[in-house]
Amino acid sequence: MLRTRFFLSIIFILTSYVSPLTFYVTAEPVTLKDALGRSVTVPSPPKRIVSLAPSITEILFALGLDGEIAGVTNACDYPERAGEKTVIGGAVDPDL
After folding, report:
1. How far lies 57's CA from each of 2, 17, 66, 69, 84, in Å?
2. Taking a C-beta distance cutoff of 8 angstroms, is the pair 84, 67 a contact?
3. Residue 86 and residue 70 in contact, taking contact as beta carbons nearer than 8 Å
4. Which run of H or E residues covers position 82?
5. Which residues pair with 32 in a beta bridge?
6. Which residues contact 43 (CB under 8 A, 6 or more apart)?
7. By the 8 A CB rule, do 75 and 90 touch?
8. Tens of pLDDT, residues 64-87
9. Which parts of the chain register pLDDT below 70?
């Protein structure tokens, strides 16, 4: 019973992220809702991404989005190619 609940929880978590992921596949406008219920319409996929955490940088590189990364923090040191990106400062004190 515990194993079944675990797998159902994993399936629920993975399928709850399907809508945001389709944003990167299609070029159509996408409307997303945040935790406060506000709607935001994004007209096209992002062309530049600024990563504010090393874990996010690693995920972006793993997804093959390193061409879209415009900036990383001074703590982003993995993979080594992250060092080639523009450093925007720290996550708490970015240089706007």
Report:
1. 34, 19, 9, 8, 12
2. no
3. yes
4. none
5. 40
6. 29
7. yes
8. 988 999 999 999 999 999 999 999
9. 1-2, 7-8, 10-26
State the distance between the two ends of the chain, measured CA to CA, in whole angstroms: 51
| Burial annotation 57-70 (CB, 10 A radius, 16+ → b, else e) | beebbeeeebeebe
Specify the pLDDT at position 12.
62
**Which of 46, 49, 32, 38 has the alpha carbon at shortest distance from 85?**
49
Instruction: Report which of 15, 32, 35 is spatially closest to residue 23, judged by C-alpha positions.
Output: 32
Phi, psi of 56 (to 5 degrees): -70, -40
How far is Cα 72 from Cα 51, in angstroms, rounded to an integer? 5
